[in-house]
Amino acid sequence: MQGEPLLFLPGFMCDARLFWHQINEISSQRPVMVAPLTGASIPEMAEAVLRHAPPKMALVGHWLGGLVAMEILRRAPDRVSQLALINVNPLSETPALSALREQRIVKARIGRLDEAMLDEIPTESLDPGAHRSQVQAMMLDMAHALGPDRFEDQSRALMRRPDQQRTLRSNRIRALLLCGEFDTICPPRRHEFLAELMPHAEFKPILSAGHFSPLEQPEKVTAALQAWLSAPLLLK
Question: Distance between CA 178 and CA 217 in Å, rounded?
Fold first, then answer.
């Protein structure tokens, strides 16, 4: 086993199951870790991850986890060797979307977590193929494992998230950008923008996938990550 540790940061209301295929395949090649996202803001989550993370690591983040990865890169750039962002949006939240999140928080508090999650990640943001219902079932199961309090914390973190364009523009590490073609939450055009913004980023769209591309097309996402990990590191 060789290479720096690979740290996975799950997306909104997700746990390690989001990356089950990637963990199974890559853990035979290098140390693999999954960090929970705790706290009510992106900076709090990043601080919590950094307290327990290895001194140097490659980072993989999906949606909220990707935002935390960006904040880690901003705070501790020397600790990040490579960065992979999956289904992300580096821009700050709009007031209109924040207002919708408040409504979803209320639903989660009164026992309607499934409804809040389906508002947050609607059916049309997933691949319309045969596995859509299975992906939705996994999404809801992970959400219930975390619970309504975590839903509120993570929602407020998204509402207050900082704009990370400057952080990404100034970095000099090899970056991989992945996005499912059907993702309406963090659409492919955002990743095309990121690829232009970041000096050493490569964008790979994941066909037949939506917002949960690591679950919807696990083999494609794993192959993309393995190729990214095996590429030579860039000199800063």
Answer: 11
